[in-house]
Design a protein that fits this description.
Blueprint lengths: L3 H7 L13 E6 L16 H11 L4 E7 L13 E7 L6 E7 L10 H5 L8 E2 L5 E5 L6 H16 L3 E5 L11 E4 L3 E3 L4 H12 L8 E4 L4 H14 L7 E8 L14 E6 L14 E4 L15 E8 L4 E9 L5 E2 L6 E2 L3 E9 L2
Parallel strand pairs: 1-2, 6-7
Antiparallel strand pairs: 1-3, 2-7, 3-4, 4-5, 6-8, 8-9, 9-10, 11-14, 12-13, 12-18, 14-15, 15-18, 16-17
Length: 350
Protein backbone atom coordinates (compact mmCIF):
# COMPACT_ATOMS: atom_id res chain seq x y z
CA UNK A 1 0.00 0.00 0.00
CA UNK A 2 1.39 3.37 -0.99
CA UNK A 3 2.02 5.77 1.89
CA UNK A 4 3.31 9.30 2.23
CA UNK A 5 6.60 7.95 3.63
CA UNK A 6 7.06 5.68 0.61
CA UNK A 7 6.34 8.50 -1.83
CA UNK A 8 8.75 10.84 -0.05
CA UNK A 9 11.50 8.25 0.03
CA UNK A 10 10.98 7.26 -3.61
CA UNK A 11 11.15 10.92 -4.63
CA UNK A 12 14.40 11.40 -2.66
CA UNK A 13 12.85 14.35 -0.81
CA UNK A 14 15.54 16.02 1.37
CA UNK A 15 15.04 15.89 5.14
CA UNK A 16 17.34 18.79 6.10
CA UNK A 17 15.51 21.82 7.46
CA UNK A 18 12.25 20.00 8.31
CA UNK A 19 12.36 19.67 12.11
CA UNK A 20 9.54 20.93 14.29
CA UNK A 21 10.46 24.23 15.92
CA UNK A 22 10.79 24.38 19.71
CA UNK A 23 13.38 26.17 21.78
CA UNK A 24 11.92 24.39 24.78
CA UNK A 25 9.95 21.13 24.96
CA UNK A 26 7.35 20.31 27.62
CA UNK A 27 6.72 16.57 27.48
CA UNK A 28 3.92 15.12 29.58
CA UNK A 29 3.41 11.39 30.11
CA UNK A 30 -0.10 10.27 29.19
CA UNK A 31 -0.90 6.62 28.51
CA UNK A 32 -3.79 5.31 26.50
CA UNK A 33 -4.79 6.21 22.94
CA UNK A 34 -4.13 9.59 21.40
CA UNK A 35 -6.47 11.35 19.01
CA UNK A 36 -5.54 13.58 16.10
CA UNK A 37 -5.22 16.54 18.48
CA UNK A 38 -3.68 14.59 21.33
CA UNK A 39 -3.68 17.35 23.97
CA UNK A 40 -7.47 17.49 23.84
CA UNK A 41 -8.21 13.98 22.53
CA UNK A 42 -6.66 11.59 25.04
CA UNK A 43 -7.05 10.60 28.68
CA UNK A 44 -5.54 13.97 29.58
CA UNK A 45 -8.24 16.34 30.82
CA UNK A 46 -9.08 18.35 27.66
CA UNK A 47 -9.45 21.50 29.79
CA UNK A 48 -5.82 21.13 30.85
CA UNK A 49 -4.73 20.29 27.30
CA UNK A 50 -6.36 23.43 25.87
CA UNK A 51 -4.92 25.58 28.65
CA UNK A 52 -1.41 24.25 28.04
CA UNK A 53 -1.70 24.99 24.32
CA UNK A 54 -2.85 28.54 25.05
CA UNK A 55 -0.15 29.16 27.67
CA UNK A 56 2.64 27.91 25.39
CA UNK A 57 1.52 29.84 22.31
CA UNK A 58 4.17 32.33 21.20
CA UNK A 59 6.63 31.48 24.00
CA UNK A 60 8.94 29.09 22.13
CA UNK A 61 7.66 26.15 24.20
CA UNK A 62 6.13 23.16 22.42
CA UNK A 63 3.90 20.82 24.44
CA UNK A 64 3.57 17.14 23.53
CA UNK A 65 2.37 13.95 25.18
CA UNK A 66 4.68 10.99 25.67
CA UNK A 67 4.28 7.38 26.76
CA UNK A 68 6.45 4.32 27.14
CA UNK A 69 6.50 1.95 24.14
CA UNK A 70 4.04 -0.92 24.43
CA UNK A 71 0.32 -1.58 24.34
CA UNK A 72 -1.93 1.41 24.95
CA UNK A 73 -5.34 0.04 25.86
CA UNK A 74 -8.04 2.40 27.13
CA UNK A 75 -8.05 0.78 30.55
CA UNK A 76 -4.42 1.55 31.35
CA UNK A 77 -3.92 4.28 33.97
CA UNK A 78 -0.95 5.95 35.62
CA UNK A 79 -0.36 6.42 39.34
CA UNK A 80 1.53 9.56 38.36
CA UNK A 81 2.79 11.20 35.18
CA UNK A 82 6.45 11.78 34.35
CA UNK A 83 7.17 15.26 32.98
CA UNK A 84 10.22 16.60 31.19
CA UNK A 85 10.99 20.18 30.27
CA UNK A 86 14.05 20.64 28.05
CA UNK A 87 15.73 23.70 26.58
CA UNK A 88 17.74 23.08 23.40
CA UNK A 89 19.68 26.30 22.67
CA UNK A 90 23.41 25.84 21.88
CA UNK A 91 25.70 26.37 24.84
CA UNK A 92 22.96 26.02 27.44
CA UNK A 93 20.82 22.93 26.87
CA UNK A 94 19.23 21.47 29.98
CA UNK A 95 16.56 18.98 31.02
CA UNK A 96 14.47 19.12 34.21
CA UNK A 97 12.08 16.40 35.29
CA UNK A 98 9.55 15.38 37.93
CA UNK A 99 6.63 13.02 38.52
CA UNK A 100 3.25 14.58 39.24
CA UNK A 101 0.03 13.07 40.52
CA UNK A 102 -1.73 14.75 37.60
CA UNK A 103 -1.04 17.48 35.02
CA UNK A 104 -2.93 20.29 36.77
CA UNK A 105 0.20 21.91 38.34
CA UNK A 106 1.66 22.43 34.86
CA UNK A 107 -0.78 25.29 34.36
CA UNK A 108 1.25 27.30 36.85
CA UNK A 109 4.50 27.15 34.85
CA UNK A 110 6.08 30.35 33.55
CA UNK A 111 6.13 29.50 29.85
CA UNK A 112 7.80 32.77 28.86
CA UNK A 113 10.76 32.08 31.16
CA UNK A 114 10.99 28.45 30.04
CA UNK A 115 10.96 29.49 26.39
CA UNK A 116 13.79 31.93 27.11
CA UNK A 117 15.85 29.10 28.60
CA UNK A 118 15.36 29.92 32.29
CA UNK A 119 14.23 27.02 34.49
CA UNK A 120 14.70 28.91 37.80
CA UNK A 121 15.48 25.70 39.68
CA UNK A 122 12.29 23.96 38.58
CA UNK A 123 12.03 20.29 39.62
CA UNK A 124 15.18 18.14 39.44
CA UNK A 125 17.94 18.10 36.81
CA UNK A 126 17.87 15.10 34.49
CA UNK A 127 21.32 13.59 34.10
CA UNK A 128 20.53 10.18 32.64
CA UNK A 129 20.96 8.76 29.16
CA UNK A 130 19.99 10.90 26.14
CA UNK A 131 16.22 10.84 25.67
CA UNK A 132 14.75 9.59 22.39
CA UNK A 133 11.20 10.52 21.38
CA UNK A 134 9.73 8.64 18.39
CA UNK A 135 6.52 9.91 16.77
CA UNK A 136 3.91 7.13 16.87
CA UNK A 137 0.57 8.95 16.65
CA UNK A 138 -1.28 6.90 14.05
CA UNK A 139 -4.33 9.15 14.31
CA UNK A 140 -2.27 11.93 12.71
CA UNK A 141 -0.72 9.67 10.11
CA UNK A 142 -0.61 5.90 9.77
CA UNK A 143 3.09 5.97 8.79
CA UNK A 144 3.94 7.15 12.31
CA UNK A 145 2.24 4.12 13.83
CA UNK A 146 3.25 1.53 11.24
CA UNK A 147 6.90 2.61 11.12
CA UNK A 148 7.37 4.44 14.42
CA UNK A 149 5.97 2.00 16.97
CA UNK A 150 8.17 -0.97 15.98
CA UNK A 151 11.23 1.29 16.12
CA UNK A 152 10.25 2.59 19.57
CA UNK A 153 9.72 -0.95 20.84
CA UNK A 154 13.07 -2.12 19.46
CA UNK A 155 14.93 0.79 21.02
CA UNK A 156 13.24 0.29 24.40
CA UNK A 157 14.12 -3.42 24.31
CA UNK A 158 17.76 -2.50 23.64
CA UNK A 159 17.88 -0.41 26.82
CA UNK A 160 17.64 3.05 25.22
CA UNK A 161 15.72 5.74 27.09
CA UNK A 162 13.00 5.68 24.43
CA UNK A 163 9.52 7.20 24.53
CA UNK A 164 6.68 7.48 22.08
CA UNK A 165 5.58 11.06 21.36
CA UNK A 166 2.62 12.74 19.72
CA UNK A 167 2.82 14.79 16.55
CA UNK A 168 6.22 16.40 15.82
CA UNK A 169 5.62 17.05 12.10
CA UNK A 170 7.00 15.44 8.98
CA UNK A 171 4.89 12.26 8.79
CA UNK A 172 6.34 11.56 5.37
CA UNK A 173 9.82 11.18 6.92
CA UNK A 174 8.65 8.37 9.25
CA UNK A 175 10.07 6.96 11.40
CA UNK A 176 10.83 10.41 12.76
CA UNK A 177 12.21 11.34 16.17
CA UNK A 178 14.24 13.84 18.15
CA UNK A 179 16.95 13.38 20.75
CA UNK A 180 17.41 15.46 23.89
CA UNK A 181 19.22 17.40 25.29
CA UNK A 182 20.27 18.97 21.96
CA UNK A 183 16.96 18.75 20.14
CA UNK A 184 18.24 17.43 16.81
CA UNK A 185 15.57 15.53 14.85
CA UNK A 186 16.04 12.63 12.45
CA UNK A 187 13.92 11.16 9.67
CA UNK A 188 13.68 7.80 7.92
CA UNK A 189 15.41 6.42 10.97
CA UNK A 190 16.47 2.86 11.70
CA UNK A 191 17.42 1.33 15.04
CA UNK A 192 21.16 1.29 14.24
CA UNK A 193 21.04 4.94 13.18
CA UNK A 194 19.21 5.97 16.36
CA UNK A 195 21.66 4.05 18.52
CA UNK A 196 24.50 5.91 16.79
CA UNK A 197 22.66 9.21 17.35
CA UNK A 198 22.26 8.39 21.06
CA UNK A 199 25.93 7.41 21.36
CA UNK A 200 26.87 10.69 19.68
CA UNK A 201 24.60 12.72 21.99
CA UNK A 202 26.20 11.00 24.98
CA UNK A 203 29.52 12.50 23.82
CA UNK A 204 28.06 15.93 23.05
CA UNK A 205 27.93 15.29 19.32
CA UNK A 206 25.26 14.87 16.65
CA UNK A 207 24.82 12.54 13.72
CA UNK A 208 24.48 14.27 10.36
CA UNK A 209 23.11 11.22 8.57
CA UNK A 210 19.32 11.57 8.14
CA UNK A 211 19.35 14.71 10.31
CA UNK A 212 16.34 17.04 9.92
CA UNK A 213 17.75 19.89 12.01
CA UNK A 214 17.89 21.37 15.50
CA UNK A 215 14.44 22.25 16.81
CA UNK A 216 15.83 25.42 18.43
CA UNK A 217 15.60 27.29 15.14
CA UNK A 218 13.15 27.92 12.34
CA UNK A 219 13.63 25.79 9.25
CA UNK A 220 15.88 28.10 7.17
CA UNK A 221 18.31 28.24 10.11
CA UNK A 222 18.14 24.47 10.56
CA UNK A 223 19.18 23.98 6.94
CA UNK A 224 21.98 26.56 7.27
CA UNK A 225 23.36 24.93 10.42
CA UNK A 226 23.48 21.51 8.78
CA UNK A 227 25.03 22.87 5.58
CA UNK A 228 27.88 24.54 7.47
CA UNK A 229 28.39 21.39 9.54
CA UNK A 230 28.71 19.38 6.35
CA UNK A 231 31.13 21.89 4.86
CA UNK A 232 33.55 21.92 7.81
CA UNK A 233 32.81 18.38 9.07
CA UNK A 234 31.69 19.61 12.48
CA UNK A 235 29.62 17.24 14.62
CA UNK A 236 30.01 18.78 18.09
CA UNK A 237 26.47 19.72 19.07
CA UNK A 238 27.20 23.11 20.60
CA UNK A 239 30.05 24.15 18.31
CA UNK A 240 27.71 26.16 16.05
CA UNK A 241 25.05 28.73 16.76
CA UNK A 242 22.68 30.66 14.52
CA UNK A 243 23.11 34.30 15.45
CA UNK A 244 20.88 35.96 12.86
CA UNK A 245 18.19 35.04 10.32
CA UNK A 246 16.93 37.75 8.00
CA UNK A 247 14.47 37.72 5.14
CA UNK A 248 16.61 38.17 2.03
CA UNK A 249 15.88 41.07 -0.33
CA UNK A 250 15.97 40.49 -4.07
CA UNK A 251 18.29 38.97 -5.23
CA UNK A 252 18.60 36.19 -2.66
CA UNK A 253 22.41 35.99 -2.84
CA UNK A 254 24.91 38.81 -3.12
CA UNK A 255 28.40 38.47 -4.66
CA UNK A 256 31.22 37.65 -2.23
CA UNK A 257 32.59 40.62 -0.32
CA UNK A 258 36.26 41.58 -0.01
CA UNK A 259 37.45 38.87 -2.35
CA UNK A 260 36.37 36.08 0.01
CA UNK A 261 35.66 32.79 -1.77
CA UNK A 262 32.05 31.80 -2.30
CA UNK A 263 31.18 28.17 -1.63
CA UNK A 264 28.09 26.97 -3.43
CA UNK A 265 25.73 24.21 -2.47
CA UNK A 266 23.87 22.40 -5.24
CA UNK A 267 21.09 19.81 -4.92
CA UNK A 268 21.80 16.11 -5.23
CA UNK A 269 20.14 14.19 -8.06
CA UNK A 270 17.69 11.52 -6.95
CA UNK A 271 20.25 8.77 -6.40
CA UNK A 272 21.59 6.77 -3.47
CA UNK A 273 22.08 8.79 -0.27
CA UNK A 274 25.49 10.38 0.40
CA UNK A 275 27.97 9.20 3.06
CA UNK A 276 27.09 9.49 6.73
CA UNK A 277 28.87 12.82 7.25
CA UNK A 278 27.06 14.50 4.35
CA UNK A 279 23.57 15.96 4.31
CA UNK A 280 21.04 14.05 2.29
CA UNK A 281 19.82 17.28 0.72
CA UNK A 282 22.94 18.85 -0.72
CA UNK A 283 26.46 18.26 -1.98
CA UNK A 284 29.13 20.88 -1.41
CA UNK A 285 31.09 22.20 -4.39
CA UNK A 286 34.33 23.84 -3.31
CA UNK A 287 35.20 25.53 -6.60
CA UNK A 288 34.35 29.23 -7.09
CA UNK A 289 30.76 29.69 -8.10
CA UNK A 290 29.14 31.46 -10.99
CA UNK A 291 26.73 34.19 -9.88
CA UNK A 292 23.45 32.64 -8.72
CA UNK A 293 20.55 32.82 -11.09
CA UNK A 294 17.85 35.37 -10.26
CA UNK A 295 14.95 34.11 -8.23
CA UNK A 296 11.29 34.97 -8.43
CA UNK A 297 10.41 37.80 -6.07
CA UNK A 298 7.65 35.67 -4.53
CA UNK A 299 10.06 32.91 -3.49
CA UNK A 300 10.80 33.10 0.25
CA UNK A 301 14.52 33.41 0.95
CA UNK A 302 16.71 34.16 3.93
CA UNK A 303 20.25 35.11 4.85
CA UNK A 304 21.39 33.13 7.89
CA UNK A 305 24.53 33.92 9.88
CA UNK A 306 26.09 30.86 11.53
CA UNK A 307 28.90 31.30 14.08
CA UNK A 308 31.44 28.78 15.38
CA UNK A 309 32.57 29.02 18.97
CA UNK A 310 36.15 29.38 17.70
CA UNK A 311 35.23 32.77 16.17
CA UNK A 312 34.62 31.78 12.57
CA UNK A 313 31.31 32.66 10.96
CA UNK A 314 29.48 32.13 7.68
CA UNK A 315 26.63 33.74 5.80
CA UNK A 316 24.28 31.16 4.31
CA UNK A 317 21.68 31.92 1.62
CA UNK A 318 18.61 29.72 1.90
CA UNK A 319 15.60 29.61 -0.39
CA UNK A 320 12.29 27.81 -0.02
CA UNK A 321 11.48 25.73 -3.09
CA UNK A 322 8.74 23.39 -4.22
CA UNK A 323 10.36 21.78 -7.24
CA UNK A 324 10.61 18.16 -6.18
CA UNK A 325 8.66 15.06 -7.15
CA UNK A 326 4.94 15.43 -6.34
CA UNK A 327 4.01 13.55 -3.16
CA UNK A 328 1.34 13.76 -0.46
CA UNK A 329 2.25 15.81 2.62
CA UNK A 330 0.53 13.15 4.70
CA UNK A 331 -1.35 9.90 4.07
CA UNK A 332 -4.70 10.65 2.44
CA UNK A 333 -3.63 14.08 1.23
CA UNK A 334 -3.58 14.95 -2.50
CA UNK A 335 -0.32 15.01 -4.43
CA UNK A 336 1.64 18.22 -4.12
CA UNK A 337 5.19 19.51 -4.19
CA UNK A 338 6.32 19.78 -0.56
CA UNK A 339 8.34 22.87 0.30
CA UNK A 340 12.02 22.28 0.97
CA UNK A 341 14.89 24.45 2.17
CA UNK A 342 17.53 24.82 -0.56
CA UNK A 343 20.95 26.13 0.50
CA UNK A 344 22.17 28.33 -2.36
CA UNK A 345 25.53 29.48 -1.02
CA UNK A 346 27.82 29.55 2.01
CA UNK A 347 30.17 32.53 2.35
CA UNK A 348 32.90 32.69 4.97
CA UNK A 349 32.85 36.05 6.73
CA UNK A 350 35.98 38.00 7.62
Amino acid sequence: MSTCATASRDGAEPVAGTSATARTWLLVEQTGPWGTEALTESHLDPRIGRALETAANGTGVRVALVRRPGRHADGRRLDGCRVFVAHTAPGRPWIRTTTLADAEPLLGLDFVRLGAGEHDGLWEPYDGEPLVFICTNGKRDRCCAVLGRPLAAELAASGAEAWEVTHIGGHRFSPTLFVLPYGYAYGRASAPLVKDAVASAREGRILLDHCRGRSTWERPAQAADLAVRELILEDRADALDVVRTEAAPFPAVTPPLGGLPLTTVTPFPAVAPPPAMALSSAAVATSPAAPPRPRATSTPAWTVTVAHRDGRSWQVAVEQRADGTPAPASCGFPLGKPARMAVLSIRRLA
